[in-house]
């Protein structure tokens, strides 16, 4: 599904360059739920942003579903990003003035789908995260866990190949974190969604198949939690 070879990302050049990724290689299979762990500054967000095509690598190759996305022209990269990659941010990144459904369907509208079709797609995605009844609520009327589930619905509405999540539970208490992790687990088990999630919490790893750990820009361990 995702094949990464000798991936490097340096910020700046010469002696003062920050080597955020120093040459990492790994493979993620279709349907895997993977946690990325490691101390602050170890390169987790840098990796996720590159794989989600939000940033470029300095060196190395990465293919997604056999497509060498690292060398795609920009127009195709942006099409791929819009249609095939789901990304969930730590702070939800929802629009406050819009209802849950509107936050989800705005991306479908951007793809050129009709309002009616976009609304149906949004309701289906909200249903998958258990929030169909609350589709009319604005973010202020939702709990932290519910807000993050709306953000997940927005990310999965386009049925992405891969769902990336960068510390999706960082601003949530334990209960809300569990809601969000349960949704990821269900998306993974019921719909076979491939998920790559950055986390700092050891107890979150009970939900995943595999834990990849980074240290100072290097991949230092790759541990299987359960067999698929
Ligand atoms: N835009 C940037 N310009 C310069 N250096 C950067 C930039 N983004 C990240 N870095 C540096 O690259 C290294 C890796 O950063 P990254 O954000 O990937 O870490 P992280 O593992 O996600 O950390 P955290 O757990 O705190 O989110 C750090 O040393 C960071 O300071
Ligand atoms: Mg980070």
- CATH architecture classification of the domain at 2-94 and 161-224: 3-Layer(aba) Sandwich
CATH fold-level label of the domain at 2-94 and 161-224: Rossmann fold
Strand element count: 9
Largest beta-sheet characterization: 6 strands, mixed
Globular, elongated, flat, extended or rod-shaped: what is the shape? globular
What series of H and E elements makes up the topology?
EEEHEHEHHHEHEEE
| Cα-atom radius of gyration | 17 Å
In percent, how helical is the residue content? 25-40%
Question: What distinguishing features does this structure have?
Answer:
228 residues; alpha/beta; Rossmann fold; 6-stranded mixed sheet; 3-stranded antiparallel sheet; 6 helices; 33% helix; binds adenosine-5'-triphosphate; binds magnesium ion
Q: How would you describe this protein?
A:
The protein has helices at about 45-50, 75-85, 100-110, 115-130, 145-155, 175-190; strands at about 1-10, 20-30, 35-40, 60-65, 85-90, 160-165, 195-200, 210-215, 220-225. With about 230 residues, it is α/β, with parallel strands linked by helices. The chain has a domain at about 1-95 and about 160-225: P-loop containing nucleotide triphosphate hydrolases (Rossmann fold, 3-Layer(aba) Sandwich), CATH 3.40.50.300. The strands form two sheets. A six-stranded mixed beta sheet has the order 5-6-7-3-8-9, with helices on both faces. Helix 3 packs parallel to helix 5. The longest helix has 18 residues, at about 175-190. The radius of gyration is 17 Å and the shape is globular. The model has no long low-confidence stretch (mean pLDDT about 95). The chain binds adenosine-5'-triphosphate and magnesium ion.
């Amino acid at each position: 599904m995702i094949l990464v070879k000798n991936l490097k990302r340096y910020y700046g050049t010469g002696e003062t360059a920050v080597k955020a990724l120093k040459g990492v290689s790994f493979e993620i299979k279709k349907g895997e739920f993977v946690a990325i762990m490691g101390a602050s500054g170890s390169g987790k967000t840098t990796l996720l942003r590159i794989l989600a095509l939000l940033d470029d690598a300095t060196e190395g190759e990465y293919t997604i579903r056999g497509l060498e996305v690292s060398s795609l022209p920009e127009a195709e990269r942006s099409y791929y990003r819009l249609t095939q990659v789901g990304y969930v941010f730590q702070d939800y990144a929802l629009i406050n003035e819009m209802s849950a459904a509107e936050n989800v369907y705005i991306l479908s509208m951007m793809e050129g789908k009709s309002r009616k079709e976009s609304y149906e797609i949004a309701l289906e995605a909200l249903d998958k995260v258990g929030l169909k009844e609350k589709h009319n609520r604005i973010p202020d009327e939702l709990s932290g866990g519910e807000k993050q589930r709306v953000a997940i619905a927005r990310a999965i509405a386009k049925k992405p190949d891969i769902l990336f999540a960068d510390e999706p539970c960082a601003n949530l208490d334990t209960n809300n974190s569990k809601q969000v992790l349960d949704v990821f687990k269900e998306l993974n088990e019921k719909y076979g969604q491939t998920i790559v999630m950055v986390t700092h919490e050891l107890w979150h790893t009970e939900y995943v198949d595999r834990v990849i750990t980074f240290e100072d820009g290097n991949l230092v361990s790759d541990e299987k939690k359960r067999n698929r």
